[in-house]
Amino acid sequence: MASSSSYNSPCAACKFLRRKCMPGCIFAPYFPPEEPQKFANVHKIFGASNVTKLLNELLPHQREDAVNSLAYEAEARIRDPVYGCVGAISFLQKQVQRLQKELDSANVDLIRYACVDVMPSTAAVSVPPQGLNSFEASTAAIAPPANRQRAVAPMGFSGGGGFYRQTPQPVAFPLPWSETPSGSGDINEEEGNM
Known about the structure:
Layout: H1 2-8, H2 12-17, H3 36-46, H4 48-57, H5 60-79, H6 85-122, H7 134-142, H8 146-152, H9 187-193
């Protein structure tokens, strides 16, 4: 019964083009009579013959997505004749960048709070393991315990601006604040000799 009523009322495309809607009409499944503006927008931007060619070249299961995409692009072009859907994409990309900055800021705050929480519990462990240089010894004294690191690490995000823990690498050259081989590491003593 529903199929006979669909043949009686032409699809939105055939009604717009003022032609008889045949049973095998390629527009009928995608432009129902209840949505005349959908085809009017698509026709205004792309033209009926171009849409017919496009739908004939596609496989039947791809046609609905193509028509939805054409309808979206046509509506965006009518709302914004200069930029069309590119304007909407640009707006959304700016919004994603803004939200990524907020996420990065929140991740920095999480790291800061996690480090403040970890620092008092590791202050008692100040004796570095034997055989470490001064840089490794200073980082070993403030490094969080293994179980604390596992508790904080899953909160990070992989990909696109998230945070991650990085293990300190040994430095191949002496740092300005490390002990010098000659034993005189005080800057004031060196300035006094000049």
